[in-house]
Amino acid sequence: MDMKFIFIILMLSKALVDAKLNFWRDFASPWKPIINYLFLNDPGLIRVRKSIEVKTEINNVTTLDFIGLVERYNYSAEEHYVTTEDGYNLVIHRISGSPLIINNQRKKKVVFFQHGLFCSSDSWVTIGPNKDLGTWQSNNVLLLIRFKIILLFKQQSKITKYKK
């Protein structure tokens, strides 16, 4: 057997055990506990933009969101909530300017980045300026958050399916 397949089976088994999936109770929707486990939607979670906003007691670690990560290095960042014509909710982050560019008002070409599976737009800016592709190309960067789509859908009572 392929090692990737074995790894996927082991990770899925771990997620099922950690999610405490009860097949009899959750038979109608067996993916819901897995999605809830992989994509946390805890109302107690706090969005942190600046590291001084929260006290950390475990290993002195503060987790910043996308805006906090980008603004930590004096880049300007925006967060936009978009609903498409067919009802999908998207969250788009934009890095609109760099502290390294003196004239930030000139017309800029757009660069669009899409992260991979189980990642977020944070993965394009975690290392820091001039090291990440998101900040290196920071003239006018748009980053789509695919995993937050699932979080937004979980809050809606009805999910609109795309129809051609």
Automatic annotation (TrEMBL):
Gene3D superfamilies: alpha/beta hydrolase (3.40.50.1820). Pfam families: Abhydro_lipase. GO terms for biological process: lipid metabolic process. SUPFAM superfamilies: alpha/beta-Hydrolases. InterPro entries: AB_hydrolase_fold (IPR029058), AB_hydrolase_lipase (IPR006693). Residues 1-19 form the signal peptide. Residues 69-126 form the Partial AB-hydrolase lipase domain. Keywords: Signal. This is Partial AB-hydrolase lipase domain-containing protein.
